[in-house]
């Protein structure tokens, strides 16, 4: 024979206050989790953080003050922050990807799935967030350097170019992406495709940044 025992506890005074406080925290955490997921989904799909007005739409809030209060709360919890222009930057909201081991790109070898680490792609690819921007590649002048049309390049404008770097530069008023070569006092921008000729600035050269990474999506 089985017995069902019901234990009843009377919550009074400090116990009742502690219980209520605990339940409020659970409710608040659930709200935060839902809101963080909405912002994370937007960030993942759009490749950027939502604006304050877009956050209001995501949370179905009409009051700007309510949006600012929520953003301040998320900022205090360390989930996001604002840059010097007030734009939102994700922090602990960033998703980490599992690192399951290594793979032999030459001859086949036995492979065994093993979780060895987790990484954030932002942390892996971006060194200086405030000085980094993305560009989509058009043209094939760097195909022999492994950069193809449709690729995305991550550009760091805080880096000083050295020989062999791929740079984004404005040459005599026109923008291009080429390989930086310095010969004496002269700078030449080299293609990586025999169809194109090297570019030597006639009047002005401005280097906007150095390509730090290349992203290619296959599917």
Helix-strand blueprint:
Blueprint: H1 13-46, H2 52-59, H3 64-76, E1 80-82, E2 88-90, E3 96-99, E4 117-120, H4 121-125, E5 132-136, E6 152-156, E7 166-171, E8 174-183, E9 186-190, E10 205-215
Antiparallel strand pairs: 1-2, 3-4, 5-6, 6-10, 7-8, 7-10, 8-9
Helix pairs in contact: 2-3
Can you walk through the features of this model?
With 219 residues, the protein is α+β, with helices and mostly antiparallel strands. It has helices spanning 13-46, 52-59, 64-76, 121-125, and strands spanning 80-82, 88-90, 96-99, 117-120, 132-136, 152-156, 166-171, 174-183, 186-190, 205-215. The strands form three sheets. The chain has a six-stranded antiparallel β-sheet with strand order 5-6-10-7-8-9, with no helix packed on it. A two-stranded antiparallel ribbon has the order 1-2. Helix 2 packs across helix 3 (64-76). It is elongated and about 60 Å long. Residues 1-27 have low confidence and may be disordered.
Tags for this model:
single chain, 219 residues, alpha+beta, Arc Repressor Mutant, subunit A, Umud Fragment, subunit A, 3 domains, 6-stranded antiparallel sheet, two-stranded antiparallel ribbon, disordered N terminus
The CATH architecture of the largest domain comes to Ribbon
CATH topology of the largest domain: Umud Fragment, subunit A
Alpha-beta content class = alpha+beta
- H/E series: HHHEEEEHEEEEEE
Count of DSSP helices?
4
The strand order across the widest sheet is 5-6-10-7-8-9
Task: Provide the helix percentage.
Answer: 25-40%
Q: Total strand count, please? A: 10
CATH superfamily (homologous) name of the largest domain: Umud Fragment, subunit A
Distance between the termini: 60 Å
**Tally of distinct domains:** 3
Overall average residue pLDDT? 76
**What fraction of the residues are assigned to beta strands by DSSP?**
25-35%
Residue windows where pLDDT falls under 50 for at least 5 positions: 1-27
| Rg (C-alpha, Å) | 26 Å
């Amino acid at each position: 024979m089985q017995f069902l025992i019901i234990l009843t506890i009377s919550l009074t005074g400090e116990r009742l206050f502690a219980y209520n406080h605990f339940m409020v925290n659970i409710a608040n955490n659930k709200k935060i989790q839902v809101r963080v997921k909405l912002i994370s989904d937007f960030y993942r799909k759009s490749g950027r953080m939502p604006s304050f007005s877009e956050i209001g739409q995501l949370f179905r809030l009409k009051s700007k003050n309510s949006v600012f209060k929520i953003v301040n709360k998320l900022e205090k919890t360390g989930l996001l922050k604002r840059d010097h222009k007030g734009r939102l930057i994700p922090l602990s909201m960033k998703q980490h990807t599992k690192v399951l081991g290594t793979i032999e790109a030459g001859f086949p070898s036995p492979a065994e799935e093993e979780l060895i680490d987790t990484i954030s792609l932002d942390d892996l690819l971006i060194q200086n967030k405030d000085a980094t921007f993305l560009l989509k590649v058009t043209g094939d002048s760097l195909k022999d350097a492994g950069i193809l049309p449709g690729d995305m390049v991550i550009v760091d404008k805080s880096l000083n170019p050295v020989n062999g770097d791929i740079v984004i530069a404005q040459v005599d008023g026109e923008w291009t992406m080429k390989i930086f070569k310095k010969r004496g006092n002269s700078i030449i921008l080299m293609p990586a495709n025999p169809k194109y000729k090297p570019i030597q600035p006639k009047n002005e050269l401005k280097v906007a940044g150095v390509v730090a990474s290349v992203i290619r999506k296959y599917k």
